[in-house]
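Sanity check

After download, print the first record. It should look like this:
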Amino acid sequence: MIELLYMVILTEMVLILTLVFKTPLRKLVLMALDKIKRGRGPVMVKTVAMTVFVLLSFSVYSIVNIQNSTIEAGAVNPTDQVLMARHMLEASLMGFMLFLSLMIDRLHHYIRELRLLRKTMEAARKQNRSHEDGKNSSAEELKTLEQDMVTLRGRIKKLESECEAKTGEAKASEAKVEALRKQSEGLLMEYDHLLEENQNLRNQLESIDQNPQHDNKKSM
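Expected structure tokens:
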């Protein structure tokens, strides 16, 4: 019994040292403890702890009984002294074993919490970095958009000036066309007038030609 308790205590001390210092075995120990705490593991651990606690209580009860019997007898019995020393050693070892078990459980819990906290902080840092990168990229995009807007405004002004120039040219062309139309109308009117005069002259010439013929007939 005592040899078994010493082996368990030494094993627990090794586990505590493995959990305290960051070594390659630390991940294996944490994985083993994670598996123990899943499924039926907690029930088995509680059962063992309760058994050890019952044995501890029995050893304490035996120590109290031996002390009471020694006080009542008024004399010290060597056998009772040996039994009392053995029970005291067993009680001390079992109490120390339970204490180390509690230390292992708390260390495992705090290491897991620390890992989760580190992961959360790392995720928050990555999120902040991505947010800052997004801000920088958005600022760069705004700068490029502003530059594009400036260039577009310049092009719009250039196109407006070209449009105004084309509008002026179109108005000048319309004025020229209107002047040519009026000129052509005047020429047509003059042409009609000349045609009328030509027709009148022809009529006069025909009348003149017909009058001498008529006079010749009369004379004959």
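If your output differs, re-run the checksum step. Summary of this record's structure: The mean pLDDT is 81.
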